[in-house]
Write a structure and sequence with these properties.
With about 250 residues, the chain is of the alpha/beta class. The chain folds into 2 domains: about 5-25 and about 100-240, 3-Layer(aba) Sandwich (Rossmann fold); about 30-95. Helix content is about 45%, strand content about 10%. It contains 11 helices and 8 strands. It has helices spanning about 5-10, 30-40, 45-50, 60-70, 75-95, 105-115, 125-135, 160-175, 190-200, 215-220, 235-240, and strands at about 15, 25, 100, 120, 150, 185-190, 205, 225. The protein has a 6-stranded parallel sheet. Helix 4 (about 60-70) packs across helix 5 and helix 5 runs parallel beside helix 7 (about 125-135). The longest helix is centred in the middle third of the chain and has 18 residues, at about 75-95. It starts with 6 loop residues before the first helix and ends in a 10-residue tail after the last helix. Bound molecules: magnesium ion. Magnesium ion (MG) binds near residues 21, 189 and 210.
Amino acid sequence: MPSSRSPGRAGRRVILFDVDGTLVHAAGAGRRSLERVLTGEFGRVEHALSGLRLDGMTDRLIVREVLVALGRRFEESLCDRILESYVLALREEIQGPGFRVLPGVPEVLAALAAAGATLGLCTGNVAEGARLKLARGDIDRFFEWGPEAIAGFAHDGEARELLVRAALDRGASRLGSALHPADALVVGDTPRDVSAARAHGVPVVAVATGRYGADELRQAGADGVLSTLDGAAPALLAWVEGGALPGAAA
Ligand SMILES: [Mg+2]
């Protein structure tokens, strides 16, 4: 019977990346897109959006909170419609200035892909929104897309925990048996990424390339904290092969 140390286990390890603040900085393209759609739908909405801190929130939860702030009733069909229009707006807005791929990200993804590591996404974006943001930086090619891909997206639920669950389930069906939570790793940039992963027993490496600093992420319970992903490929590869978590306190 294979033990937890069997070589087969390392080959089953999966890294799940968040998108905004972790892989790319979209320079407000998502917020601008949503504002465009909501303005078209309801008139002026800046006041409803301006108070919201969107990082770490799922797109569906953002729509719910904005609708509540506008005094509107949340309905699933309305949310679906808003997010469909949002993707159309994002196609243009993502081309705006300020977009950047975060330091070291292409190198890390290329190294992991070259080594045959299984990569997935765990992001509050709708799938097409994530694809547009990553495509702008030419890093969408490192991920699979479509219903079978190992990923959790906004359509999997409003609560971020549901995205982690969905990614684990898709990972299990792709790998052919249960994906042990300890064999998945979430890489994200907010305390929400941390708490959502930990709710399922999935370890988290947090990167301080979003709004939150290393100390805040450590306090939130991240198992490992990195200032950026620059140079993180060897440590992430070592984890994939059964080693310790990158950025863990000694
Ligand atoms: Mg993020």
